[in-house]
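in:
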């Protein structure tokens, strides 16, 4: 169950309470019966593991680009031998 923080607008009493998501917000101060306000605070988030940092994504891109260049160079060699036969057939109709 989540913990919510409240603060009274009249007597400045602050407290935390565990409530379900389906429970309605508290509106009355238990000390002075004044109006309560729900407090919000920053949540600490940490990103652990690979893929979260700029360096991680760049390393992946460089290695992917290197693999792609190797793949392209292999078909281009096959394509050049195929290209010469295609070039010969193109030269014949002209």
């Amino acid at each position: 169950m989540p913990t919510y923080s409240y603060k009274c607008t009249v007597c400045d009493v602050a407290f935390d309470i565990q409530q379900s998501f389906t429970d309605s917000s508290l509106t009355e101060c238990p000390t002075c019966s004044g109006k309560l306000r729900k407090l919000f605070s920053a949540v600490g988030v940490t990103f652990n593991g690979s893929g979260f940092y700029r360096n991680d994504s760049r390393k992946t891109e460089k290695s992917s680009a290197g693999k792609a260049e190797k793949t392209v160079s292999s078909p281009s060699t096959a394509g050049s031998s195929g290209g010469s036969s295609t070039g010969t057939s193109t030269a014949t109709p002209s």
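note: Residues 3-39 form one domain.
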